[in-house]
Design goal:
alpha+beta, 4-stranded antiparallel sheet, 4 helices, 16% strand
Length: 180
């Protein structure tokens, strides 16, 4: 089908007639698959960034809470029988409230005492533990306590432990004056 030359004025270009051509089903499907792949890869990348950010936030909060709990325990007064009264546990739990976590996020999982007779840490000895006597005259080496503090983020996503060593280093006259 060609155009009639009499219709066009002299010097004008001839436009060829083309049928209006649309996209085929295959072309549409290929473009949808390509766009879907691109959108899916972008969404996957965004989700990964959000998840990693949340994990880093949990880790940072756990480290802040465990540092705060260790400082609070280390700066609190010396308690001769800490596992009996759970005093250090309560002091450590306060650190969880700083980031809005439940107190159970902080726990002391182990108490140990320095035993100068064996030159190492013992879980229990005759001076403290089950036979604890708060008024017994202890030497500095016999008053060393080591507590293992564990902090776990809510949902048990991340956990960290830290050992805190504490000693009654007050002068003897102060210790004697405050003894029960």
């Amino acid at each position: 089908m060609s155009a009639d030359p009499s219709v066009f004025p002299a010097g004008a270009e001839r436009l060829e007639e083309r049928p209006d051509r649309g996209y085929t089903l295959v072309e549409i499907l290929v473009s949808i698959v390509l766009m879907g792949t691109i959108v899916l890869s972008i969404m996957t990348g965004m989700w990964t960034v959000i998840r990693v950010s949340r994990q880093n936030d949990d880790r940072a909060k756990v480290q802040a809470v465990i540092g705060s709990a260790a400082d609070r325990i280390a700066n609190y007064q010396y308690v001769a029988c800490p596992e009996d009264a759970n005093t250090y546990q309560v002091i450590g739990e306060v650190a969880a409230s700083v980031v809005g976590w439940e107190a159970t996020s902080v726990e002391i999982i182990r108490y140990q005492f320095w035993d100068p007779d064996i030159g190492s840490w013992a879980d229990n000895n005759s001076i403290q533990g089950a036979d604890c006597n708060q008024s017994v005259g202890l030497t500095t080496s016999k008053t060393l306590q080591k507590m293992t503090v564990r902090v776990t983020s809510p949902g048990a996503g991340y956990s960290s432990t830290l050992d805190v060593v504490k000693s009654d280093i007050r002068p003897k006259d102060v210790k004697d004056a405050s003894a029960p």
